[in-house]
Design brief:
Layout (H helix, E strand, L loop, with lengths): L2 H8 L1 H14 L14 E9 L7 E9 L7 E6 L19 H7 L3 E5 L17 H16 L4 E7 L1 H13 L4 E5 L7 H17 L2 E2 L5 H8 L6 H9 L4 E2 H7 L4 H4 L7 E6 L10 H6 L7 E6 L12 H13 L10
Helix pairs in contact: 2-8, 4-5, 6-9, 7-8
Length: about 325
């Protein structure tokens, strides 16, 4: 594996810092990761590798608590090429789903999934989709020791893993699937089959979607702020090849009927990977869920959390959680 890429993978913070410094020099708005009225604290979870039970891994991330004693927690899982920082990207500019949910009365836990950022893995082939689902399950069980109610949510590949966890283990109270369903666009399928899979077969980590410019083109629309696109592009992680090779068949296709909790399916109208037009078909796959709520984010692309309309979409997620008896808020 190329040493330069491995170094990038394990030192994302320096890349982000350089990108933000460059933006500040250009007079563009920059926010500190710990800004805002809510305190962000480190979070670490020890999990057992399902394929090597004697091996323990550490999953690192952060936690944001509301200004009251929360009884509900939301575990957030990022997508390919992202990390936990995607959920607290720029609080001062409103780009923080972690703080939006905490402001609504929920503790939020966001992790760097294994093979990303602060949760490094030497062999990217070991970070498969089923391993991620197992680790999410183990973290959910640990959260159950502190909270009466646990919701799981993810964006893109993080949604796939969230659906797997909910369908396999039936231990969460609500599921939030963001920017993902089982009907990817033809354009994305071609990209994935001709680019990502061959790269994953050659090396244990690969750059999702091939190049920074193509990644930005697929993830964003013109409605996103240019400085956001630039900072996000500079901060992209390499993706473990094990995840690329095992997500291909989208195993949640089989598990979605086993999800027995309320589901929020949120998609962007300009998503080039998972078009919002297929939302009704995606919703229909959750045949045993007591309710499936569809929400469309207008004027946004795949990474809609970081588009101008993204903060309002985060508020709708918070409103959905607050409206459910399964996930009570600690705020009146």
């Amino acid at each position: 594996m190329n040493l330069r890429f491995r170094t990038l993978k394990h030192h994302r913070s320096s890349v982000v810092g350089a990108a933000l410094l460059a933006m500040a020099s250009a007079g563009l708005p920059v926010a500190r990761a710990d800004s805002g009225p809510l305190e962000r604290t480190p979070a670490t979870y020890r999990v057992t590798d399902p394929y090597a039970r004697s091996v323990e891994r550490e999953i690192h991330g952060f936690r944001v608590d509301p200004p009251c004693a929360a009884t509900s927690v939301v575990l957030l899982l990022h997508g390919l090429s992202y990390g936990a920082e995607a959920w607290d990207f720029s609080p001062e500019q409103g780009y923080s789903y972690a703080r939006t949910l905490a402001d609504a009365g929920y503790t939020v836990v966001a992790i760097d999934r294994l093979g990303y950022g602060a949760s490094p893995l030497d062999d990217g082939y070991r970070a498969t989709v089923d391993v991620h689902a197992e680790f999410a399950h183990q973290i959910v069980q640990q959260l159950r020791g502190e909270f009466a109610h646990v919701a799981i949510g993810g964006h893109s590949a993080g949604a796939e893993i969230s659906e797997l966890e909910a369908g396999l283990f039936n231990d969460v109270d609500a599921l939030i699937a963001m920017g993902y369903h089982q009907f990817p666009s033809t354009r994305f399928l071609v990209d994935f089959a001709t680019g990502d899979i061959p790269r994953a077969l050659r090396s244990d980590y690969e750059y999702f979607l091939g190049t920074p410019s193509h990644r930005a083109q697929m993830f964003y629309t013109a409605a996103a702020e240019p400085w956001v696109v630039a900072a996000d592009t500079a901060a992209a992680h390499l993706t473990p090849s094990g995840e690329i090779l095992t997500i291909t068949l989208q195993p949640s296709r089989v598990l979605a009927p086993f999800v027995r909790v309320p589901v929020l399916l949120q998609l962007a109208d300009g998503d080039r990977l998972f078009p919002a037009a297929f939302a009704p078909l995606a919703a229909a796959s959750f045949i045993h869920s007591p309710s499936v709520t569809l929400d469309t984010v207008r004027q946004a692309g795949h990474t809609y959390m970081l588009h101008r309309s993204g903060p309002a979409a985060g508020e709708r997620i918070a409103g959905w959680l607050r409206g459910r008896p399964e996930t009570p808020s600690c705020l009146p």
